[in-house]
Write a sequence for this structure.
């Protein structure tokens, strides 16, 4: 990777020095929350373009992508198409997104016990922060619903193939899982399963039963919302990962107080809620 801190960059004349100082002092005096989206982006880009006026670059990024969230979700190649953005600037923006994701994941450790749906949803949501492609994850639990691990199964177009079934079963068996939860995202859609998503859920559920692993839930995520497929399309009279038998009580407790579509409010989510399309 060639960096913007190159000889060419260092030869550029410093401009708007007082403007940078004013932006910096405003952030210190009034707090970062007082700064506009443009000011926040241009301040971040100070560190990638130390001798360039980054205000026009910040404007160009917002004009191109529409919001700070969309800027941070953009791929490196998409960012680099914006005038003034090089590999280092794009790297810095993607670095922020990855730090956001890891910040949100940090509180939950392996071995944590999950007893209610919202706990699982809040745990899985950060895996999809800043993504503009679909990903399918598999969260694995023992028979006490203690978290064992969370593994990426596939990226791109999410569908159910023999290869993905083999991968899911091999991981579940190798990890000694008694129960699993699937989760995938709809980056440009709504938190609602497609016909293909429902078919995939049914296929994986049936396949896992043959190896005595319970599919507890399948989440479809979008922005701040998630849809629990199993809750809305399957009866609560299902096998419990704790006893292995049909046990409605387990699912009644799991879904206690849960709506058909649930919301999460992580630190870095947008404040503006988007209504689920009918």
């Amino acid at each position: 990777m060639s960096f913007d801190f190159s000889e060419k960059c260092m030869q550029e004349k410093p401009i708007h020095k007082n403007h940078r100082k004013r932006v910096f002092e405003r952030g210190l005096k009034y707090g970062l929350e007082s700064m506009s989206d443009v000011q926040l982006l241009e301040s971040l880009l100070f560190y990638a373009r130390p001798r360039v006026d980054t205000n026009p670059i910040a404007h160009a990024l917002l004009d191109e992508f529409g919001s700070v969230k969309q800027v941070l979700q953009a791929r490196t190649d998409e960012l680099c198409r914006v005038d003034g953005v090089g590999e280092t600037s794009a790297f810095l923006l993607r670095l922020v997104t990855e730090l956001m994701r890891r910040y949100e994941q940090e509180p939950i450790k392996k071995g944590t016990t999950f007893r209610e749906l919202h706990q699982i949803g809040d745990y899985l949501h950060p895996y999809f922060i800043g993504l503009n492609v679909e990903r399918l994850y598999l969260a694995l639990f023992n028979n006490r619903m203690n978290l064992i691990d969370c593994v990426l199964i596939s990226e791109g177009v999410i569908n159910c193939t023999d290869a993905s079934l083999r991968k899911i079963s091999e991981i579940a068996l190798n990890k000694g899982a008694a129960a699993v939860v699937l989760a995938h995202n709809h980056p440009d859609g709504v938190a609602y399963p497609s016909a293909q998503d429902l078919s995939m859920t049914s296929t994986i559920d049936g396949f896992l039963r043959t190896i005595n692993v319970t599919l507890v839930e399948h989440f479809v995520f979008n922005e701040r919302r998630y849809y629990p497929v199993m809750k809305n399309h399957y009866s609560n009279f299902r096998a419990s990962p704790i006893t292995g038998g049909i046990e409605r009580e387990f699912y009644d407790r799991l879904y206690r107080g849960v709506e058909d579509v649930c919301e999460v409010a992580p630190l870095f989510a947008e404040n503006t809620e988007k209504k689920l399309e009918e």
Notes: The two ends are 45 Å apart (CA to CA). The first strand starts at residue 135 and ends at 141. The first helix runs from residue 7 to 11.
